[in-house]
Amino acid sequence: MKTWQCVKQCGACCYLAPAERPFLEEYLDPDQLALYHALVGADGWCVHYQKVDRTCGIYETRPEFCRVNTTVVQEVYGEDPQDLDRWAIHCCTDHIDSVYGPESPEMLRFKQANL
Ligand code: SF4
Ligand code: SF4
Fold first, then answer.
1. How does pLDDT run across 101-113, given as a tens digit for each residue?
2. Residues with CB under 6 A from ligand 1
3. Half-sphere exposure (CA, 13 Å, Cβ side) for 24?
């Protein structure tokens, strides 16, 4: 298993439409859940997602649940921090598959970097 790497020009995890995340209530506390819903734009993308360059407009102050580190993996998502790479690669693959498709250039670039 490689070390997880986010790839540029993706942004699939910033598509927040709740229908795509049916288990939000299971891992976000009420405050986090309210914040999550406040971020969802009319088209399902995060209101802070910058589509022109596929980046986060509030990167330095983005919510905890947007971050990938051992503390967040354990405290927010209830996963073993030692499984961070496996967990993050699985999440990214799911999001990229759902947003761009299994044969998309985004998936290809992600797999080249992570699998
Ligand atoms: S889905 Fe994964 S690779 Fe794509 S932007 Fe989000 S963290 Fe990065
Ligand atoms: S706050 Fe930033 S990282 Fe989090 S979903 Fe929105 S655009 Fe993506």
1. 999 999 999 999 9
2. 6-7, 10-13, 92, 95-96, 110
3. 17
